[in-house]
Design goal:
single chain, 282 residues, nine-stranded mixed beta sheet, 34% helix
């Protein structure tokens, strides 16, 4: 393993290991953290890799602790990788003032506006630097990558897959921010990170991207219908309409009674891991 990775701790889980790492990130110009679940199959041969992008306020720990995903990653022989959601402790004025912007809220974009542009380059981190680290240090099949996420991370997964269709063979999301240009969370983040030119925003909005960058493979989304953010922030129907217009295969499952949290994710996590595992085996 490369000496550039610092192993913080590890835990045996369902015959594999959950591991937490830190490293110096060139993309984010700061130390970054990520978590990995290596399934038992990885001890004998390289396995497909599935990246999970978390939502607002989360770290690299939330998904690994709360989603109950490890047993299914072990069952289907898939490595899980969960990065942190932003750089931290950069000393930027206002960085820690709001829960939905700055620390814990990188929105998976490459910021172009100072002072954020010096550190907040989560899109490059997720799509380039982290996959290169994984390929250099872990037994993965680098040509078999999938990506999924929750809320802000669902937005991140959709845009990463739409912008890089050859890199990610599969994509899914839980309650994604599906039309960030049209919701308060997205407008707040984009105006600070990307400036006020909304043409720049389109490159990071799944409902805009899908009109020009379709995938041959289907997209899976689960959305809880008791989600308090459904109407004002998530807007899955906007993405559904855009997919229909573009001819993009989409399965949008509306789950009655479920809210925005990890109980919802844990309920349907096996469906998502199986969805990815089947795509990554093809």
């Amino acid at each position: 393993m490369s000496t550039s990775l610092n192993l913080i701790n590890q835990h045996v889980c369902f015959g594999g290991t959950v591991e937490f790492y830190s490293h110096a990130s060139s993309a984010c110009n700061s130390d970054m953290r990520f978590a990995v679940y290596q399934p038992p199959q990885a001890r004998s041969h390289p396995v497909p890799v599935l990246y999970f992008l978390s939502g607002l306020t989360c770290t690299e720990e939330n998904f690994m602790v709360k989603a109950g995903a490890q047993q299914f990653a072990a069952k289907y022989g898939v490595m899980l990788v969960a990065p942190d959601t932003s750089p931290r402790g950069r000393g930027i004025p206002g960085e820690d003032d709001d829960w939905d912007f700055g620390t814990g809220a990188g929105f998976y974009v490459d910021a172009t506006e100072a002072p954020w542009s010096q550190y907040y380059r989560m899109y490059s981190y997720v799509t380039q630097e982290l996959p290169a680290l994984m390929a250099a240090n872990f037994p993965i099949q680098n040509n078999r990558q999938g990506i999924f996420g929750h809320s802000m991370g669902g937005h991140g997964a959709l845009i990463c897959a739409l912008k890089n269709p050859m890199q990610y063979q599969s994509v899914s999301a839980f309650a994604p921010i599906a039309a960030p240009m049209q919701c308060p969370w997205g407008q707040k983040a984009f105006s600070h990170y990307l400036g006020n030119h909304q043409e720049t925003w389109r490159a990071y909005d799944a409902s805009e991207l899908v009109l020009t960058t379709q995938r041959d493979r289907p997209i899976l989304i689960d959305q809880g219908m008791a989600d308090p953010f459904l109407e004002n922030q998530l807007m899955p129907e906007r993405f559904e309409e855009a997919c229909a217009k573009a001819g993009q295969p989409l399965t949008l499952r509306r789950q009655d009674g479920y809210d925005h949290g990890y109980y919802f994710i844990a309920t349907f996590i096996e469906d998502h891991i199986r969805f990815h595992a089947e795509a990554l085996r093809e």
